[in-house]
Amino acid sequence: MDPQKLLYLAAIIENGSLIKAAAQLNVSQPALSKSMDRLEHELGIKLLDRGPRGVVPTPSGDLIYTHACQIRDEMAMAEVRLQGEAHDGRVITIAVLPSLASHVIPLAVARWKLDHPDVVLKVIEKRQIELLWGLLRGDFDFVIGQTEFFDFTLDGLMQRVLFRDHLRIYARTDHELFGLEHLTWSDLSRYPWVCPMVGRKQRTVIEKLMAAEGISKLPQPIECGSVGFMKSLLANSDYLAMIPSHSLRVGTDQQLIKALPISDPALKRDIAVIFHERLRLDDVRQALVAHIKEVGMNMP
Q1: What are the start-end ranges of the E strands in the chain?
Q2: What is the CATH number of the domain that holds 221?
Q3: Hey, which residues does 160 pair with through a beta bridge?
Q4: Which residues of 110-138 are buried (b: 16+ CB within 10 A; e: fewer)?
Q5: pLDDT at residue 8 above 50?
Q6: Which of 189, 184, 223, 219 is CA-nearest to residue 203?
Q7: Same domain for 56 and 148?
Q8: In the chain, how many domains are there?
Q9: pLDDT over threshold 60, residue 283
Q10: Which of 242, 251, 273, 253 is nearest to 105 (CA)?
Q11: Residue 197: what pLDDT?
Q12: Residue 188 shares a structural domain with residue 248
């Protein structure tokens, strides 16, 4: 298949019109129409239904369209990377878990920037599964996330553990749970929870710990991807949440919320740098990873 024809196909489907697509692509409408005729002939299948109300893809056209979009995305990413390499300081794009973006990553970036002031750094927050798929698509240079891959294999990705993350169950400082002498998970299940989005590893941990106490599910939890929102909600309600201990700032946070006296070996996770084997980390990126590791290992 001619990649150029696939890009033409994508433009036609997105515009719903040969005329509009031709204008966008800066080619003549007859030439674009002939290009699609040739593509359909080469593949031996019909890709487009052309009618008086416009152009719509056939089921086969929809299938080819998804691959055409991937090709276009790869070309766009390659252009970004080339522009970054041509820039005096280059451009680095990383993605991290929201919980790490509140303290560990900012500290590490501040230290790294002292030695690399001209490098343009883009930091994106994503949940674990989005980190990995984005890395496979080439959206990021590397990601900082959990080591677990949610029970499926992602070919081509490599990981290196950087530090151990400690999770704690937090509540507001005057929560009545602090008055109990022997706290259990059953006690915690009596209160509302704010949890990470469905599918994140932390949510699975909570559910497993509750299940061991015979608790089938959390009572109507709020799902949220923002650590800041979680902390604010805890400070102003009876809600509970599992948050990495390093996410709490010294001072304000510790005056409003604190960790409940309950622990479990499951409340730990390995944080790793994950990257694609065909895009090895250069010295500049390795330096950033080294700072992230150092900051993470020194977190309480």
Answers
A1: 48-51, 54-57, 91-96, 120-125, 142-146, 157-172, 194-195, 222-223, 241-244, 257-259, 268-276
A2: 3.40.190.10
A3: 273
A4: ebbeeebeebebebebbbbbbbbebbeeb
A5: yes
A6: 223
A7: no
A8: 3
A9: yes
A10: 273
A11: 63
A12: yes
Residue 218 clears pLDDT 90, i.e. is over it: no
Task: Name the more confident of 76 and 296.
Answer: 296
Residue with tokens 């710990």: 209
Q: State the maximum Cα–Cα separation within the chain, in Å, rounded to a whole number.
A: 81
Q: How far is residue 25's CA from residue 153's CA, in Å, rounded to a whole number?
A: 38
Statement to judge: residues 145 and 177 lie in one domain: no
Same domain assignment for residues 58 and 204: no
Q: Tell whether the torsion through CA atoms of 150, 151, 157 and 159 is positive or negative.
A: positive
Both 160 and 280 in a single domain? yes
**Measured between alpha carbons, how far is residue 135 from residues 141, 151, 225, 270, 298 in Å?**
7, 17, 20, 19, 27
pTM across the whole model = 0.63
Judge if 94 and 39 occupy the same domain.
Answer: no
Round to whole Å and give the CA distance between 197 and 226. 10
Helices and strands in the chain, H and E counts? 12, 11
Provide the pairing of β-strand 222-223 with 194-195.
parallel
Provide the residue type at 99 as one letter.
Answer: S
Retrieve residue 263's tokens: 């622990």
Contact between residue 276 and residue 136 where contact means Cβ atoms under 8 Å apart: yes
Q: How far is CA 158 from CA 153, 155, 280, in A?
A: 11, 9, 10
Residues 76, 295: Cα–Cα separation, whole Å: 34
Q: What is the pLDDT of residues 10-69, one digit of tens each?
A: 999 989 989 999 999 999 999 999 999 999 999 999 999 988 878 899 999 888 988 888
96 and 77 in one domain? Answer: no
The backbone region for 189, taken as left when phi is positive above 0, alpha when psi lies in -120 to 50, beta otherwise, is alpha
* Residue for token pair 């022997």: 182
